[in-house]
Amino acid sequence: MRKILAYIPGLLLALIIAFFARSIESTLPFHIIGDSVLALFIGIVINQIWKPNSFIEPGLNFTAKRVLKFSIVLLGASLSINTVLNVSGLSLTVMLFTFLTAFGGGFLLGKWLGLDWKRANLINAGTGICGGSAIAALAPVINAKDKDIAYAISVTFLFDMLMIILFPIIGRALGLTDMAYGLWTGTSVNDTSSVVATGYAFSEAAGDFATMVKLTRTLTIIPTVLVFSVISARLEAKTSPTARKKVKITGLIPWFIVAFIGMSLINSFGLFSMPVSTALKNISRFLMVAALAAIGLKTDLKELKKLGPNPLIHSVIVSTLMAIVALIVIYFINI
In the chain, at which end, N or C, are there fewer CB atoms within 10 A of the end residue's CB? Predict the structure, then answer.
């Protein structure tokens, strides 16, 4: 009981920041900056002014780790295989190439820049899948550090802000149709809020299609975390003789990922009513924002600066390559 009580101060602080972040986001046009990014940045700013003490830290650690995992489980209730069926095979074709670019090209680029594999793949996931949600889902699976999570979300956010401005200009200059532009945006821009802002900046039809494509893209979180669960376990087994003896197939997939997949399957079969699915999605989103607020509160800017410019260079190159590859594929399939 005493241990549970120790979590309350830090948890409450993270929830308060999450509330303010969501309130700020709701006032912004097109929700141009996501609440998760706002919460992370608010937490980082507070950390520069006031360092969390031993009274706050247990709750922050609990929120950043356990609450984050629970939010991922609930996120599954908002995903449905039916979404894929509602979007043409065109989007899946483009996503195949962008996914290969993000993780294949990102892997090679990360090695060339000398990046830690966890840091590089957090950026690859944020770029290739869906920004903060993908980073948050992958981080516990590969045991990523809080500073790596903060850096990955920050650099993907910077690219998104640039694309909100540039994509509509480039789309009109190239004479893209609403569907072509929506497909390009949905497969290239990272965070959901940024996809919505970028899509509707072109036209309502483009925004609608971009959002649908983005939801389909989000489903790739499932195979991604499964693959990285296996990779992480294998790498740990190679570096630790003790871990090698303990590795079992049943232990390769974290419990919260199993629960996450279970929730998405339940929703795919229509066993969640729309109000229940929406409610669970909102709770998941709010808890994820709180977890990122806790990570921000634990993040020192001096530690981020020590990581150097290479992760930022990595993010810019991979994001740019994704946008170019998506545009080339769209051109060849002639939408």
Answer: N
